């Protein structure tokens, strides 16, 4: 009996040690991940002289908004924010809708050559943007959408929907056939099956795609830089790149601009955090 108790105590002690070790490792990882954010916030509220004298690691003395004032005075931030939110928001919503419709046709509609269609969509997500920019730029010129936010919107709807269709079609390919057959027996047409049966089941996955599409499109730089020429049509990442001169760099102003560009995505993430968590964990629950 005493031997069994000793063995149980050893098991409990071992499990406790592992838990503490895991907690310490998780805390260290969290600290490492928060260091860049600390540097961003601390340097955004410094003056140029404070940064030069005390370095990037020290807290600001004093805390000042001078870097924000310089940045907001050099760009039309409300216009940049409007363009970025418009592009990312429209691409996220329309991209998810197009992905759902295309995946429904491929995964449940069983269109001919669906394997090749999925392969082409996969290749579209793999191709580098540098290989696509010339035909995209030429096409935008031909239809009169050069230097228009709608050219970027159309491009990224197609690119994001290609990935979304590839992902959702693989999910819908394993959708229970008995459920679909029961709906058809009850007189449901394809649109009713899509909106009343398929869409509710895939709502968590589509919510995750919505968040990812918004964040990915918000951070896009290369294609918007080529397609959007004038400042009134540009997005926040392009304005950030313009702050870096050939021989000079105002680190505090760049930190303030980066913090302002990060805040909208953080707000969007926190608003949809619960939805994102449910979507990620939905696939693990039968």
From TrEMBL:
PROSITE patterns: ABC_TM1 (PS50928). GO terms for biological process: transmembrane transport. It is found in: Cell membrane. The keyword Ligase does not apply. The chain crosses the membrane at residues 20-41, 80-104, 116-137, 149-172, 254-272. It comes from the Bacteria. The keyword Transmembrane helix applies. Residues 81-272 form the ABC transmembrane type-1 domain. Keywords: Cell membrane, Membrane, Transmembrane, Transmembrane helix, Transport. Its main location: membrane. It is a multi-pass membrane protein. GO terms for cellular component: plasma membrane. Belongs to the binding-protein-dependent transport system permease family. This is ABC transporter permease. It comes from Jiangella anatolica.
């Amino acid at each position: 009996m005493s031997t069994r108790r000793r063995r149980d105590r050893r098991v409990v002690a071992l499990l406790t040690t592992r838990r503490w070790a895991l907690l310490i490792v998780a805390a260290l990882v969290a600290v490492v991940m928060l260091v860049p954010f600390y540097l961003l916030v601390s340097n955004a509220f410094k003056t140029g002289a404070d940064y030069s004298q005390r370095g990037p690691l020290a807290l600001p003395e004093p805390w000042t908004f001078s870097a924000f004032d310089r940045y907001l005075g050099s760009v039309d931030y409300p216009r940049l924010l409007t363009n970025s939110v418009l592009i990312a928001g429209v691409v996220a919503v329309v991209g998810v809708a197009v992905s759902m419709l295309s995946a429904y046709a491929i995964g449940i509609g069983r269109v001919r050559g669906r394997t090749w269609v999925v392969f082409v969509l996969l290749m579209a997500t793999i191709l580098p943007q540098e290989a696509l920019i010339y035909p995209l730029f030429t096409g935008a010129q031909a239809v009169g959408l050069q230097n228009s936010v709608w050219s970027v919107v159309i491009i990224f709807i197609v690119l994001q929907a290609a990935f979304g269709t590839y992902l959702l079609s693989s999910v819908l390919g394993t959708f229970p056939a008995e459920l679909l057959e029961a709906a058809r027996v009850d007189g449901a047409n394809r649109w009713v099956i899509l909106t009343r049966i398929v869409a509710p089941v895939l709502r968590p996955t589509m919510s995750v795609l919505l968040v990812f599409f918004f964040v990915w499109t918000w951070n896009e730089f290369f294609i918007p830089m080529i397609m959007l020429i004038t400042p009134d049509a540009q997005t926040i990442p392009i304005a950030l790149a313009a702050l870096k001169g050939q021989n000079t760099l105002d680190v505090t102003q760049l930190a303030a601009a980066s913090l302002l560009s990060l805040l909208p995505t953080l707000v969007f993430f926190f608003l949809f955090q619960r939805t994102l968590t449910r979507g990620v964990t939905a696939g693990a629950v039968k």
